[in-house]
Amino acid sequence: MPDSQAATAPATYTFRVRILGGFYAPPGARRIWRELELTADQTLADLGDAIPLTFGFDDPTCGRSSSAASPGDRTSEYALLADDPFGDPKQAAQDLPIPHAPADREFLFLFDYGDEWHFGVKLIGTGQPTQPGARYPRLVATHGNAPPQYPEIDDNE
Question: I need a labelling partner for 78 at 20 to 30 A (CA). Which of 6, 46, 129, 156 fits?
Answer without folding.
Answer: 129
